[in-house]
Design a protein that fits this description.
Length: 223
């Protein structure tokens, strides 16, 4: 049974979410204070976190950033804020999805949880589908066929495929690929993505692996 951590300071709302999740065969745990989250995660391993943005103690954004330092644990942010800057900031910190404007439908939350969990493919699952990345040799293959990637293309594919479904802004991809601090434009990332897609298309002409989100960034998802 998959385990969902609900981090929400409105107890009635958290209880409602817990009830709906458990009706849909999820185990769930509620935490109401931001300071409780990281100590709890050190002792437990949920499959997904429903994380409110506005919390007492440590806020949702800081918690998201802390989780992302060493984990790809799926995170859905829950917020009443609608400003685009909050949405983009959350994505850059590593949120997998957003549910904006409270109150919201518990049924929608359950549907979002199921969708994020479905697309959180493990490396083993991707290998079953035919994609294999060898970090020792920087070699990527699909069904045994070498994609002949450059080092940058390999790193892009690795970053994206390690967290399927997560949306990466161009700025985050620049930071991850060019760790030496050099100045690289968004267009450089776009150019590498374009070349990477062409090489993948040779082996998988009918499958799109790297998806664009206008004005936001890119995500890996086996469609």
């Amino acid at each position: 049974m998959q385990h969902i951590l609900i981090v929400e300071d409105e107890v009635k709302l958290a209880t409602l979410l817990k009830d709906y999740l458990e009706r849909n065969c999820f185990k769930s745990t509620m935490l109401n204070h931001g300071d409780e989250v990281m100590p709890w995660l050190e002792q437990n391993k949920p499959d997904l976190v429903l994380l409110d943005l506005m919390l007492p103690g440590i806020g949702g954004m800081d918690i998201c950033k802390e989780i992302r330092r060493n984990s790809s644990l799926p995170i859905i942010m829950v917020t009443a804020k609608v400003e685009e800057i909050d949405r983009l900031l959350g994505l850059e910190l590593g949120a997998d999805d957003y549910i904006i404007c409270k109150p919201f439908s518990p049924r929608e939350v359950v549907a979002r949880v199921k969708a994020v969990l479905r697309r959180s493919e493990s490396p083993e699952r991707l290998e079953e589908k035919g994609l294999k990345l060898d970090t020792d040799t920087y070699k990527a293959t699909i069904n045994g066929n070498d994609l002949d990637l450059t080092a940058v293309e390999f790193q892009l594919l690795k970053v994206l495929s390690d967290q399927p479904g997560r949306i990466f802004s161009r700025a985050v991809l620049v930071d991850k690929i060019y760790s030496d601090g050099r100045v690289v434009s968004d267009r450089t990332i776009d150019s590498h993505i374009k070349k990477l897609r062409k090489k993948i298309a040779v082996q998988l002409p009918d499958v799109e692996l790297i998806h664009s989100l206008y004005a936001v960034g890119y995500k890996f998802e086996w469609s």
